[in-house]
Write a structure and sequence with these properties.
Alpha-Beta Plaits, 26% strand
Length: 105
């Protein structure tokens, strides 16, 4: 777990977020989250399982997938309605902490 993610889950970031706005986003907003990994072992389902606790109201139209040219990798883009930066941060931490997610954007 990264230092940022561990401090986020321990709650030490909450005070900073409440007193300092370090984002140009206005909430709520639609925001695309992209995760990339090997196209095996139900990777798309794995990504959805990681994101769902933070964004439980996803629909099929929120999810797009794209295989790599060689078919070895897949990208999953999930467009969420985010209510706060901390909600996005938590979702990115869940993706980053997964050994199966090679990159999260």
């Amino acid at each position: 777990m990264t230092e940022f993610c561990s401090s986020l889950t321990s709650g030490t970031i909450a005070l900073e977020a409440a007193t300092y706005s370090d984002t140009l986003l206005e909430f709520p907003c639609r925001f695309p989250i992209k995760a990339m990994g090997r196209d095996e072992n139900q990777f798309v389902t794995h990504v959805l399982d990681l994101i769902n606790p933070y964004f439980p109201k996803l629909t099929e139209s929120d999810i797009q997938t794209r295989p790599s040219r060689g078919g070895k990798y897949i990208s999953v883009t999930i467009t969420v309605t985010a209510d706060s930066k901390s909600q996005l941060d938590a979702a990115y931490c869940a993706l980053s902490d997964s050994g199966r997610v090679l990159m999260a954007l």
